[in-house]
Design a protein that fits this description.
The complex is a heterodimer of chains A (251) and B (488).
Chain A: E1 11-22, E2 25-36, E3 40-44, H1 51-58, E4 66-71, E5 74-75, H2 83-88, E6 90-93, H3 105-115, H4 121-134, H5 150-162, E7 168-172, H6 180-195, E8 199-203, H7 207-213, E9 216-221, E10 224-229, H8 231-236, H9 241-250
Parallel strand pairs in A: 3-8, 3-9, 6-7, 7-8
Antiparallel strand pairs in A: 1-2, 1-4, 4-5, 9-10
Helix pairs in contact in A: 3-4, 3-5, 4-5, 5-6
Chain B: H1 11-28, E1 46-51, E2 60-62, E3 65-67, H2 69-81, E4 84-89, H3 92-100, E5 106-107, H4 115-118, E6 121-123, E7 128-137, E8 153-157, H5 161-173, E9 176-180, H6 183-192, E10 197-201, H7 202-210, E11 215-217, E12 222-227, E13 230-232, H8 237-253, H9 255-264, H10 275-315, H11 320-334, H12 338-353, H13 359-384, H14 388-396, H15 401-431, H16 443-454, H17 457-486
Parallel strand pairs in B: 1-4, 1-5, 8-9, 8-10
Antiparallel strand pairs in B: 2-3, 5-13, 6-13, 7-10, 7-11, 7-12
Helix pairs in contact in B: 2-8, 10-11, 10-13, 10-16, 10-17, 11-13, 12-13, 13-15, 14-15, 15-17, 16-17
Classes of the chains: A alpha/beta (251), B alpha/beta (488).
């Protein structure tokens, strides 16, 4: 933890005046956001508002144009930071699962712990089976990803993201690519994870789920945080016109 | 027959020989000399001699062995004078180019002694008196002399005496001269009817007709040039002197006439009688050719894979310099003919650098750089066809770029690249036949050697074609099996 920055001990993610541009296109225009340990934050908002980009800046899948991002004590914007080390503390789940098709389900999960020399192959496999048990797919350990349903793939992806025992989990529209009947099983796994006290940031279109699971909901529009608050407050009594407009369309 | 160009010295060995020769001459004229080793200049030395591939009866292959008047004469002279020869069967033009670039010490290739050539080379005493003759298809009764050629096309060998003679009378008799590279192909084109007659050196024609090439001579021979053995001007004088001494010796003891008679008096003995006979006789040489084809392809393709991986990755690199280097490499070798590089590496590079480059080195360089350019594009395409989400997922787990490439991206890219790589391997195998132009002894070259000696062009090519086909089918099956096995 070479780059620990001053922050209250229970803040896991700190974002200050984050800007991100793709060429001349300014996607994030100054985001400030803190996430406390164990907090579940859902980010909602219309398409193109920058939700996914914000999430991808947290583990530097996108280069940060300006501002400051501190994750689990690492200053991500410090050019000297070992980004691979940071990413081992942050699990990420993608909309399109991105499972490795040439490996079995168990091998997908074992890859990082074994390659990064955290575990032997046998330990890695045992860990993979435990995680699969947790997402209810232990019997699929030797299957290829191509033989799984969308919901099963996403549950494996969650197990894979947990393999390095991260303190933070990021979900990038984890249920958007799923058939409606499979959304429930994935949300169930995410909810169980939330109940364990995992710090999580979720970009989601599932308003009902956000309301149920989130400690805090952040509404983004046009690259800025427009409004945020407890779910019952944001959904029940939105203050901003943009928020009201958006919610009237999706609820 | 004739053709030819330049000349120069052969590095340390040639300089030593030249010095020794000067010493020898000094001794001969009785001048006091410190160069005592002069008398040893030829004895025990090994000389590399270039020759044509396909100029029966002067040089051709029989059962895989290089034989013919030139070969027998040269070996007899070498034995008589106590030196060794290493013969390189390169093709006429290639042999002369090799002499110029000092890849060989001398050339014996049924080459006419002309004034032009004498400016560049030193010739031995003439060892054969040649002359041009005209032949037509055996069944052709319409052409009985030059006056019947009005409005017709004849063939002659590029740069040879037959060509210059045919051209010198073309206007007078109103015919056209088309030039080809080899006697065998000239005879085929007369038989096929694309030309009515061929002008060639009379011993070559006589030998071919005796071998059953389906032609007949219809004019008297025009007395013409004499053949000589050549070295670069001012170089290898001891070798030249030894050749002359040996020739005089063979003429005196009758061996010279014996050699000539064995080819010109009764040359029919060796002609294969039917297709099966031809097949049996040619298989050993063709198998050697196939082995060389497979070996040069395998070595080249292994190098091409390494080059392709390096340059393929450079092409997708974020570094503009690396990308530029890779793009330049690919553009150069995709944008120029393979054959040009074969000539460049074998003839050009030795002259530019002074290095001795073997035909294998030149062949492997040519094929591997050419295939490497294509493999680089296949690698780039394969990697770019892998969903970027795969790399992101791997990186988000904390694996570095190299590890992610190795474990996640490349295995998937390789699976997608496999069909293209198999395709490129087969193209490289077929392209290796172009190396015959620099005298690389691959399969088609061996075929050429065989039909140049027996004039059974069509049947020989058919056999060569079938061997290529079988080899490539087998390779394809093997590659597809490996693909299924490893890329489940």
């Amino acid at each position: 933890m070479s780059t620990v920055t001053e922050q209250s001990s229970n803040v896991k993610i700190q974002v200050k005046d984050l800007h991100k541009s793709f060429g001349s296109n300014n996607v994030l225009k100054g985001i400030d956001m803190d996430v406390r340990e164990g907090e579940v934050v859902c980010v909602i908002g219309p398409s193109g508002s920058g939700k996914s980009t914000l999430l991808r800046c947290l583990n530097k899948l996108e280069d940060i144009t300006s501002g400051k991002v501190v994750v689990d004590g690492f200053d991500v914007t410090d050019p000297k930071v070992d980004i691979n080390e940071v990413r081992r503390h942050v699990g990420m789940v993608f909309q399109h699962f991105n499972l490795f098709p040439h490996m079995s389900v168990a091998e997908n999960i074992m890859l990082a712990p074994v390659e990064l020399k955290k575990m032997s192959k046998a330990e890695g496999r045992e860990r993979a089976l435990e995680l699969l048990e947790r997402v209810g797919l232990r019997e699929k350990a030797n299957a290829r990803p191509a033989s799984l349903s969308g919901g099963q793939k996403q549950r494996v992806a969650i197990a894979r993201a947990l393999a390095m025992a991260p303190g933070i989990m990021l979900f990038d529209e984890a249920t958007s690519a799923l058939d409606p009947e499979m959304v429930g099983e994935v949300l169930q796994v995410i909810k169980e994870l939330a109940d364990t006290g995992m710090t999580m940031v979720l970009v989601t279109h599932e308003m009902g789920f956000a309301r149920e699971v989130a400690d805090r909901v952040v509404f983004m529009a046009d690259g800025v945080v427009c409004e945020q608050g407890a779910p019952e407050q944001l959904f029940g009594n939105p203050q901003q016109a943009r928020t009201q407009d958006f919610l009237s369309k999706v609820l | 027959m004739e053709k030819k160009r330049t000349a120069a010295p052969t590095g340390r060995l040639a300089r030593w020989i030249a010095a020794a020769a000067i010493g020898l001459m000094a001794l001969v004229v009785g001048a006091p000399s410190a160069v005592a080793q002069g008398s040893e200049s030829v004895e025990g030395q090994t000389y590399v001699i270039g020759t044509d591939t396909t100029f029966a009866p002067f040089e051709f292959r029989q059962n895989g062995e290089l034989t013919g008047i030139d070969m027998d004469l040269l070996r007899a002279i070498a034995e008589d004078q106590g030196f060794e020869v290493e013969i390189r069967s390169l093709g006429f033009n290639a042999a002369l180019a090799a002499l110029s670039s000092n890849q060989v010490d001398g050339v014996i290739a049924g080459m006419s002694i002309t004034d032009e050539r004498k400016e560049i080379y030193d010739f031995s005493e003439p060892y054969f008196e040649s002359g041009v003759q005209m032949a037509v298809a055996a069944g052709n009764d319409e052409i009985t002399g030059y006056e019947d050629l009005e409005g017709k096309t004849v063939v002659a060998k590029t740069g040879a005496e037959g060509e210059s003679y045919a051209k010198s009378i073309a206007e007078e008799y109103g015919f056209e001269v088309k030039s080809l590279d080899q006697s065998a192909t000239m005879y085929e084109s007369v038989k096929a009817g694309s030309a009515v007659a061929v002008f060639d050196d009379y011993p070559v024609l006589a030998y071919g007709i005796a071998q059953g090439n389906g032609l007949k001579t219809v004019t008297d021979k025009v007395p013409g040039g004499s053949y000589g053995f050549a070295v670069n001007k001012g170089e290898n004088t001891a070798l030249l002197a030894a050749f002359n001494d040996g020739l005089a010796e063979l003429k005196a003891n009758g061996e010279y006439q014996q050699i000539l008679d064995s080819y010109l008096a009764d040359p029919t003995a060796a002609a294969p009688s039917n297709f099966f006979d031809l097949l049996v006789k040619s298989i050993p040489a063709l198998m050697t050719g196939l082995w060389h084809t497979l070996l040069v392809t395998a070595i080249s393709f292994a190098i091409a894979m390494a080059l392709g991986l390096v340059f393929g990755f450079m092409k997708i690199s974020g570094n503009i310099v690396l990308r530029g280097i890779a793009t330049t490499f690919v553009n150069i070798f995709r944008g120029t003919p393979l054959l040009l590089w074969a000539f460049m590496f074998y003839f050009g590079l030795p002259q530019l650098t002074g290095w001795e480059i073997s035909v294998w080195t030149a062949g492997v360089l040519t094929l591997s750089l050419n295939a490497g350019a294509y493999v680089a594009e296949i690698v780039r395409g394969g990697i770019q066809s892998v969903d970027p989400g795969q790399l992101e997922a791997s990186r988000s787990l904390g694996l570095g770029y190299g590890k992610s490439m190795q474990k996640v991206v490349i295995p998937q890219a390789f699976k997608m690249m496999t069909p293209s790589l198999i395709n490129q391997l087969i193209i490289s195998l077929k392209d290796s036949s172009l190396l015959l132009a620099i005298g690389f002894t691959e399969l088609l070259y061996q075929g050429q050697q065989i039909y140049a000696a027996n004039f059974r062009v069509t049947e020989t090519l058919l056999i060569v074609g079938i061997i290529y086909f079988i080899a490539i089918m087998a390779l394809t099956k093997l590659a597809n099996y490996a693909d299924r096995r490893f890329n489940k």
